[in-house]
Amino acid sequence: MAVIITQECIGCGACEAVCPFGAISLQADKAVIGDACTQCGACVDTCPAGAIRREAEDQAAAMDKSQYQDVWVYLEVAAGSLKNVGLELLGEGRKLADAMGQKLAGVLLGNNIEALAQEAFAHGADQVYLVAAPELARYNTDGYTAAFTDLIHTYKPSVVLLGATNDGRDLGPRIACRLGTGLTADCTGLGIDEATGLVAWTRPAFGGNIMATILCPEHRPQMGTVRPSVFKRPVPDYAKSGEIIKVASKVKAADIRTKFLDLVQVCTVSCNLEEAEIIVSGGRGLGKPENFCYVEELAAVLGGAVGASRAVVDSGWKPPMHQVGQTGKTVGPKIYFACGISGAIQHLAGMSSSDIIIAINKDPDAPIFRMADYGIVGDAVEVLPILTEEFRKIKA
Ligand code: FAD
């Protein structure tokens, strides 16, 4: 929250007028800041008397940053296993930790999850912070925020990485806000800034037209979310071991304002794009929504997921959860089929790290062929059923 230096306030009301959140009121000719304050700083810049400070700036000035050490990775658990994104981040976290001369730790929150620590060690973690409690058995915003924030207050990591998944995008900003630190969302690149030794968080900005590199110089920990599949999983070494630091949970059932009622699986294998090893994607070149069945049939035979271009999603042929690209999902499967997809830069941004790209397009000059490892020039509606049939024979 912003802080009013009451003796300096001249009661002019400029801050009240400029606050976009209606968080400031004048009481007895002095500005008073309410709970709606987001520390956006509009009032600080406007106040002619210099009577407003950001609380976070006070905290930053008082913070001893040398106490903050080590790189942490949030390890998301789904159906009893670690999600790929956490393992991918352990690979990148290892590089950051080595460059900073610090340790790499995974953070595991849940219940009955201790066995997963070995997977984290195999993927590069030196340590795992483990908070196990029935209240954390499923992801919930209140419990996980409290448990993770508590860990950070106690052990003071320098860097915290989270996946830009539904849960990571929910959890990361809440923790950052509680700690009064910054978070760079949806990063596509991580490095170390040579001049400062800080983490250089790179992410697309202005609709992907520029890449912005962001530093967090004043606050700790430095935090960021990273899209799944941007980085490759490191090759695991199961001979490695590490230290498990068990921390008792202080979360009580009463602290959790939501209640788990039911799990409704809206989509299974076909839209689990981030974890898929094979993705078959379709674009506008399929001609009409009914022709998408050819993409789905090939995906089913290969046990892969179904992707779509934005043109297809915008036309209502497939729901947004299937969209691949800059404003959809970033994927990195072993094999990516692009069927009737032109290869616009925004689509490529989401799938270019695939190991093998196979494109089917009737235009031999389509940009997708410049990215593809294998190209089939032809009508996708004719080619797809032939491919499906051939793969079916191989599998039989
Ligand atoms: P088209 O560009 O229309 O291409 C259709 C292709 O199919 C053509 O190459 C054509 O030769 C081929 N074709 C036609 N008939 C056949 C046939 N019978 N058989 C085989 N091939 C055939 N797009 C995304 O996909 N993902 C995103 O996340 C995304 N984000 C965006 C964000 C912004 C800010 C903007 C401005 C755009 C974004 N787009 C995104 C849109 C992107 O620019 C393209 O418009 C989109 O990817 C085109 O989809 P498409 O390739 O299916 O369609």
Automatic annotation (TrEMBL):
Family matches, as SMART domains: ETF
Classification via InterPro entries: 4Fe4S_Fe-S-bd (IPR017896), 4Fe4S_Fe_S_CS (IPR017900), DHS-like_NAD/FAD-binding_dom (IPR029035), ETF_a/b_N (IPR014730), ETF_a/FixB (IPR001308), ETF_alpha_N (IPR033947), ETF_asu_C (IPR014731), Rossmann-like_a/b/a_fold (IPR014729)
CDD domains with a match to the protein in the record? ETF_alpha
The record lists FAD as bound by 284, 309-310, 323-327, 340-347, 361
Q: What is its EC number?
A: 1.3.1.108
Give the cofactor note.
Binds 1 FAD per dimer.
Among the Pfam families in the record, one is ETF_alpha
Biological-process GO terms, alphabetical: fatty acid beta-oxidation using acyl-CoA dehydrogenase
**Molecular functions per Gene Ontology:** electron transfer activity; flavin adenine dinucleotide binding; iron-sulfur cluster binding; metal ion binding; oxidoreductase activity
Which part of the chain is the 4Fe-4S ferredoxin-type domain?
Answer: 1-29, 35-57
Q: Which cofactors does the annotated protein need, by name?
A: FAD
Q: Does the keyword Metal-binding apply?
A: yes
Which key words are in the record? Answer: FAD, Flavoprotein, Iron, Iron-sulfur, Metal-binding, Oxidoreductase
Q: PROSITE patterns in the record, alphabetically?
A: 4FE4S_FER_1 (PS00198), 4FE4S_FER_2 (PS51379)
Similarity comment: Belongs to the ETF alpha-subunit/FixB family.
Can you say what this protein is called? Caffeyl-CoA reductase-Etf complex subunit CarE
In its UniProt entry, the species of origin is given as Sporomusa termitida
